[in-house]
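In this section we walk through a basic example: taking a raw amino acid sequence and producing a predicted 3D structure, encoded as discrete structure tokens. The instruction is simple. Fold the sequence below.
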Amino acid sequence: MEAKRWEYCYVDLLNRTMVRATSDGLERVKFKRDKSLPDDTKEEAAGRAVARLGLEGWELVNGYGDVRPILFFRRALP
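The resulting token sequence is shown next.
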């Protein structure tokens, strides 16, 4: 039986950035407020980004930090 292979990413909630490794290096994606929503906040933008990761098959595996919260995710490679 072959061992499962994983890809990993992390979300920096303070800087509103997701970072993941790709074959070309690190990919950084900044998530932003949706200005079309009247009461959208940075926290809601972060929540949408984390929810999107879940829909894409990412699994939360760890998190730490009070001042600068970092969330770590993984998903199985095909």
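Looking at the output, two observations stand out. Residues 6-76 form one domain. The longest helix spans residues 42-55. In the next section we compare this with other chains.
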